[in-house]
Protein 1
Amino acid sequence: MTNQDKHVAELTRDHSDHQQLLDQDTLISVKNVKKYFPVKGGILKRTVGHIKAVDDVSFDIKEGETLGVVGESGSGKSTLGRVILRLLEPTDGRILFEGADIAHIGNRKMREHRKNMQIVFQDPLASLNPKMSVGELIEEPLLVQTSATKAERKQKSIELLEKVGLRASDRTKYPHEFSGGQRQRISIARALALNPKFVICDEPVSALDVSIQAQVLNLMKDLQDEFGLTYLFIAHDLGVVKHISDRVAVMYLGRIAEIAPKDEIYKNPKHPYTQALLTSIPVVDTGEDTIQREKVKISGELPSPADPPSGCTFRTRCPFVHDRCAAERPELKETENGHYVACHLYT
Amino acid sequence: MAEQPVLDIDKLKTYFYLDDEKVAKAVDDVSFSVYPGETVALVGESGSGKSVTALSIMQLINKPGRIVEGTIVMNGKELLQMKPKQMTKVRGNDIAMVFQEPMTALNPVFTIGNQITEMIRKHQKSSKNQAREKAIELLKTVGIPRAEDIMNEYPHQLSGGMRQRVMIAIAISCEPALLIADEPTTALDVTIQAQILDLMADMRDKYHMSLLLITHDLGVVSEYADRVMVMYGGQIVEEGPTKELLRTTNHPYTKGLLNSLPNIDKHVDRLETIKGTVPAAFNFPKGCRFSTRCPYVMDKCLESNPEITEVGPEHYVRCYLHENGGIPNDESR
């Protein structure tokens, strides 16, 4: 079966059963999503292999919820975000947004959905066009997607600027005139221009100093409360993710290693990789209520996603590796209420 | 401390003379010492002057920047009086530096082996073969697998963590008395960060080096530094033994930094923030440089910049609040 046939098969199956799969309050549901990048080689540039950037990832996000996605560079977390927004085409799998499968729909249909799905990137200096004024930047989505008049657009941009803690007079300035934190506020205002339901935040505070990072995180929480936003929050900083998320998914080499409500995952991490991540963070010892965790140290580095280890992809670095890990890939299984882990230690 | 310091900096001022006659006081009256075998951390946010301080020690300040005043004494030798040729010997032999981004610090067109042996042969008398052997040994010391093969590879073939290990191998090749590490793990993932920081601590002990660790991460400071200096606006605002300083914080800026960190063990609905942004280095407020952002600002703070004063054993702070018994303990303000 070629890829295309597969898509068609997926689509037909999908129309029949997707409705009953959805909970009432689920906003977005990602099912078995894969994104493979072909590796070309040889003189004829034939495809000689695949980089499995996202490999069979599934999860739901409820309305108003924040799902944090953590992982190291190369774990596939950013690719996942881009695939959900269809900025990259998924290789396989389904993405249900408000019950409709958007994984393989055409551009025109997708554009309708984009009003409700926005993204904030890590580096606002790279994602904001330097030749456009702040006003133009914020009004651009309104110009493209709505029939708002010039006056309405101006009104809306002023409103948004004030919402994100900037001034109406900033409309005429350009991105380079702002500090990093203020630029990220502009990106947020632009993302919110169309009143989206769902915002993907891809490392939105990683480039900021801690004092500014805290300001932006607080702002994002306030906006979520005010507009009832649903976030997919991608970051490598476990402290930041804990602060903003309701549930947390840990990714390793394109797969979800563990997913659980945040208190659960931080207090009772099950996957050895999650344990290692948590205990690798240097903790500030301020004397009061600092929990001393027993360090789980892992050696080595992330294997190449072009040639991942057989079975469990974490086995090459895992301190608890046993025979079964090489032979069999662990499935993501529920161990306790809402706590899923993909590890043979728990099966 | 009775011991002689390895590095003693006194009243260092490094200014940048900008086009429009503005003067950016990137480092303004900074004094500190580093003693043998200790790890000292210099923390601060972007623009606080921590990197310029490090570059000043190495005398790698380029125009329009200039070291305007002060002394930097390394093992009894005054570095600022040295001729460029003498200073070249100090760099690498006495002080070595590891940078944040190893990809830009390593030369992309030379092999790893080439770059390590260059350093060894420049500073020590040794034959090509001796240098090669030493290089392989160094790569093994810093935990690089397949050291012989890596010698013939180029920087782009290595991962970020491996590149940083190579940088450390080059830095320690001449067994310097002081290793300056400028945000050595900022570009790395947490699991790799832990590996690199442990390696640097091991190397410090093995070669009896002192470590000047420049970072923005208070977690790293807490776990790896013996003493810490907090920089803000080109000046040290608080200095002390790590534990003491983090537990009994005396400067509102340090306290603000600590409170704005999301903590994985504590749940807070809102993070505390430090309002506003860092003032530009050519436009510091009159008086205390933190006064524009300080929640406890008093009239006095707007008039003159406080001197750095001792508030506990080896614990110094640049703030008028200590005269009134330190930071007020109310959370309402």
Protein 2
Amino acid sequence: MKKAILTILVLLPFVAQLALLPFVNKIGPIIFGLPFFHFWLFLWIVLTPLCTYGIYQLQKSKGGLE
Amino acid sequence: MQGNLTALSITIFIILTVVLIGFLSGRDKKVRSSVEEWSVGGRRFGGLLVWFLVGADLYTAYTFLGLTSTAYTGGSLAFFAIPYSVLAFFISYFFLPKLWKVANHHKLTTLADYARERFDSKLLSILIAIVGVLMLIPYICLQLSGIQDTLRVAGTGFINVKFVVITSFLLVALYTFFSGIKGPTYTAIIKDVLVWAIMLFMVVTLPMIHFGGWTPMMDRIVKDAPQLLTIPTDGPKGIPWFITASFVSALALFMWAHAATGVFTAKSADSLRKNAIFLPLYNIVLILVIFLGFIAFLVLPKGTDPRFALLSLIQSSYGGVAQGLAYSTIALASLIPCSIMAIGASNLFANNIYRDWINPKVKPSRLTMITRGMVFVVIGLALLFGLVFPSALVSLQLLGVSGMVQIFPAIVISLFWMNQTREATIIGLLVGLAVTFTVYGTGNSYGIYEGFWGLAANFLAVVVLNPLFVKKAKSSTNPVKEFLFNKKSKEAPLARKGA
């Protein structure tokens, strides 16, 4: 279970910021004053650290970090 | 074009203050007592200092001027910098702590040092050092043209711009020689505070001045220039280019000698992990700054030199004081990274070209002196190329990232793959460079980033050729390999996640 979460957290930032780009490459809807494409990039500036933090906590709880 | 005396005085005053702080941070003679002290601060920097140092690397004058100018001419392609740097820090989480541990344990100060010890190969370390120095000098030149453009806008009619550029760079070389990495670290804090404050100020006020606010600005762009807001789906620079450029640049970021220098100053692997978590947040300002390029597109007269997009926008929008603060921020964003880059390049040259190749028996005290002295050579070369033959370096500047990323297998893959061989790695590096240069030279990139072709060829060469040499690699070992792979039982779960 933990391993699955870990894998997802590792892959998510790549999928969102590279693989999904062709699908978010559009202007509307405008969210928080940003066109959708830029909003999406902005969102992952904030979400990527959360993924990294999740990985950090998971590895720490497994005692994988010294 | 006429400068503004208030703006110019503020700029010069702030530059001189920062240079003074650069000198003061080297009061303690210990900072230049050894290569390790001078170049990586004795590896004693805590999380926050590393954050500023690595942030200082990334947020250069070229970032602001270059990205706004790309936005001005190429629209949203400029935003490739966002996934690039966010992913660069994310990826770094998986290998920097490990690399740091090896470097700390074996007292290594450059990436080429690591490759030499990991593969017992001076040839590999010399190759990595040559690539590193060759790609870094044009990058320093870019910083130089950044400050030169800024001073040209601020001071035309008052000062001799070339003279001031040369003087300020010599001052930076001098304080770097004197204070080592401590100089740019403390000044980077001032620079980053100014960057955040000034960039936020511009992001808030420029839309207000020209459109009455952010939302009316966005409405205008959507109505008058919607082509700026999306990426072309194909063509030489479309979506495939955007994706591959982001990805390859992300892999390349910590291959740069100056970024590695910042990393090796850390006092623990954990401070690097925490930095990897938080550094992407740096981009919150950057993404908004890129929009300033769109404002420039809408309000500047057609035919403005794209290189001056941001600077002209500042000049036509603000009074003397705000102009001065903005110019000095950009000037500092040019000078301080330059200092870190010079340390990175000098370190590579002295350790991996001079000591590994020319004079292996050099005494430590002499090596320290040579490393420090190289700062003048590196900055001197950058000045020479930047001011005398500015066009000669254009290709190297464009190829910097694509060239640097070719050492990724030698530096990062080798942390996780025990049986990676020296021979395959060296051939891979050379193949990668050759393919990158060929693709660039012939222009046949098929809408994909040049470095991506090079890196693909590089990986392929390593994987295909490795079995030919693996027998020897399996039977031999060395302290770095022992350190990386021998406590396998304990480290394996973490290592595998990273690979």
